[in-house]
């Protein structure tokens, strides 16, 4: 793999994704990894990420400089560039010249070398730094500069060491992906031969090796991750897998049917649906506090799943073939964020599928542990998972329960479901599904406003549209949807959905607003 050394912030994941977009497999490792540990992973290249610190700060994340002596090509980015400069005897200083955001950069030196040689001489890059490299280490060529940063990129091709001050991994750096690809393919000579599809065969073999002839259980949520994980496991072990769908009544229009019909038809998995709608509604009766709702929904989910599981486990045991494995759609970002690297999973509980019982003694099967969301989608398509599920935008486990501001009732759920369907139809119809991250539709059930419809006064509820653009849901901006589309959505909702007489647009970024309203 290419190892991405994580110096903090969100940069490492972004870099790892960009490396994979260049068709090279990447893994993230913590910055305190030793040179020996790095060597043991047999990397073909190493990228040092950016980070929030200054190399001079007390406790600033350091690097085992032996990593630079392994003979493996290394590229430092931003903080990683500075760490590299410092480790090799260059100078890093607080010059007072801070650069944040879009910055003009020019490629100098011997035509930019392998890293920048094919790039425009003048370009805009995205910067975020307070310290600057003022002198490159001995033997390094300076490749680029900006008005206030004389050493914005350097290279020592003979040692296989490269660095850039800017962030090539962010989309605001126009030619950023080119820099990453130049490092990988030209400087380090790594072939572009990895793609998420390759993962299928490996995972199928790994799943077979892990579960043998054992039986496997999987909770389907209607979302992408569990659907793709189950499809992979099914490909590996067929009917040793049983899936359970808990219908908590908080799903959107058509979601249960998409799993029960389209998914089952195309993948061929054995599915049991548990209808728990009444149970959830009565547990949520009168509850308005969002965290309380989440707790209740999580708890009821566990109870329901446990009941179904107990029945299935008993049935399987009676047949002399116990269920010992549980599939989880854990993705790479979850693994990285929980500090886990390559460790194998034999965990008691995890809270991905809405929370699992504390005393499950299952061994987890997590075939998506090394993958990012877009890769999971690509694999899902290859496995034949229906497009409606594969391209589904993120939807929270507590579902519509946390999109009704106020108490959850069957009537309110019906209103919201109808409004949400209209929004989804219109966004899809306008071809905008790829442009938005997700678009929560929220019913302000405890708010009423006066309206006029036909020749009568109405006193109805507002529906909030919350379209957001994001790369990872950690930060988001509100999506500038076309006015005519907004007008159509508004017209349709106010005309077609009873008790709704107003549609409002949420124009708040995250932060300060979260994506969901509750
Ligand atoms: P927020 O509202 O925190 O949402 O900006 C970030 C992302 O997380 C989803 N979300 C949840 N997902 N259980 C989930 O499984 C939850 O309780 C939950 N709350 C928010 C949200 O849809 C968005 O994608």
UniProtKB/TrEMBL annotation:
Entries under Gene3D superfamilies matching the protein: 3.30.300.10, 3.40.50.880, HUPs
Annotated metabolic or biological route of this protein: Purine metabolism; GMP biosynthesis; GMP from XMP (L-Gln route): step 1/1
Molecular function via GO: ATP binding; GMP synthase activity
Enzyme Commission number, as recorded: 6.3.5.2
GO-annotated cellular components: cytosol
InterPro entries: Class_I_gatase-like (IPR029062), GATASE (IPR017926), GMP_synth_C (IPR001674), GMP_synth_GATase (IPR004739), GMP_synthase (IPR022955), GMPS_ATP_PPase_dom (IPR025777), NAD/GMP_synthase (IPR022310), Rossmann-like_a/b/a_fold (IPR014729)
Record-annotated active site: 78, 167, 169
Keywords: ATP-binding, Glutamine amidotransferase, GMP biosynthesis, Ligase, Nucleotide-binding, Purine biosynthesis
Domain GMPS ATP-PPase: 194-392
Pfam families reported for this sequence: GATase, GMP_synt_C, NAD_synthase
Binding positions (ATP): 221-227
Catalytic activity line of the entry: XMP + L-glutamine + ATP + H2O = GMP + L-glutamate + AMP + diphosphate + 2 H(+)
The protein's assembly and partners: Homodimer.
HAMAP family xref list: GMP_synthase (MF_00344)
Function: Catalyzes the synthesis of GMP from XMP.
Name under which the protein is recorded: GMP synthase [glutamine-hydrolyzing]
Species in which this protein is naturally found: Cnuibacter physcomitrellae
């Amino acid at each position: 793999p290419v190892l991405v050394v994580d110096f903090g912030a969100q940069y490492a994941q972004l870099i790892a994704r960009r490396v994979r977009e260049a068709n090279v497999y990447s893994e993230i490792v913590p910055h305190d990894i030793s040179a020996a540990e790095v060597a043991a992973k047999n990397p073909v290249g190493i990228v040092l990420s950016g980070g929030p610190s200054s190399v001079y700060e007390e406790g600033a994340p350091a690097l085992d400089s032996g990593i630079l002596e392994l003979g493996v090509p290394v590229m430092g980015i931003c903080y990683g560039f500075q760490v590299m400069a410092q480790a090799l005897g260059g100078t890093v200083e607080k010059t007072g010249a801070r650069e944040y955001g879009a910055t003009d950069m020019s490629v100098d030196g011997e035509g930019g070398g392998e890293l920048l040689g094919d790039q425009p001489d003048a370009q805009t890059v995205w910067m975020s730094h307070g310290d600057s490299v003022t002198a490159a280490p001995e033997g390094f060529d300076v490749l680029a500069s900006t008005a206030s940063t004389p050493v914005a990129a350097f290279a020592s091709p003979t040692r296989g060491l490269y660095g850039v001050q800017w962030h090539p991994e962010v989309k605001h750096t126009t030619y950023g992906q080119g820099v990453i690809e130049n490092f990988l393919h030209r400087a380090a000579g790594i072939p572009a031969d990895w793609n998420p599809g390759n993962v299928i065969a490996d995972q199928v073999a790994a799943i077979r090796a892990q579960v043998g002839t054992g039986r496997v259980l999987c909770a389907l949520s209607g979302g992408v991750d569990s659907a793709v994980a189950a499809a992979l496991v099914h490909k590996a072990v067929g009917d040793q897998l049983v899936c359970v769908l808990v219908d908590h009544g908080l799903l959107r229009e058509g979601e249960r049917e998409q799993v029960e019909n389209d998914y089952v038809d195309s993948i061929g998995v054995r599915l049991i649906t548990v209808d728990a709608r009444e149970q959830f509604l009565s547990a949520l009766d009168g509850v308005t506090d969002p965290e309380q709702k989440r707790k209740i929904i999580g708890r009821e989910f566990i109870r329901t799943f446990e009941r179904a599981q107990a029945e299935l486990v008993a049935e399987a045991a009676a047949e002399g073939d116990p269920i010992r494995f549980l599939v989880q759609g854990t993705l790479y970002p979850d693994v990285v964020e929980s500090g886990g690297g390559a460790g194998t999973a034999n965990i008691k509980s995890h809270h991905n599928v809405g929370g699992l019982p504390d005393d499950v003694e299952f061994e987890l099967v997590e075939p998506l542990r090394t993958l990012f969301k877009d890769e999971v989608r690509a694999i899902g398509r290859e496995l034949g998972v229906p497009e409606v599920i594969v391209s589904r935008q993120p939807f929270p486990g507590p579902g519509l329960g946390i999109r009704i501001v106020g108490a959850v009732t069957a009537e309110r759920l019906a209103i919201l479901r109808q409004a949400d369907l209209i929004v989804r139809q219109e966004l899809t119809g306008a071809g905008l599904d790829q442009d938005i991250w997700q678009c929560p539709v929220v019913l302000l059930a405890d708010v009423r406003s006066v309206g006029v419809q036909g020749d009568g006064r109405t006193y109805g509820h507002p529906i909030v549209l919350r379209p957001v653009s994001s790369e990872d849901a950690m930060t988001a901006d509100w999506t500038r949807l076309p006015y005519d589309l907004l007008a159509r959505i508004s017209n349709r909702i106010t005309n077609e959905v009873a008790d709704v007489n107003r549609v409002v647009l949420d124009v708040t970024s995250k932060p300060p607003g979260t994506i969901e309203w509750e």
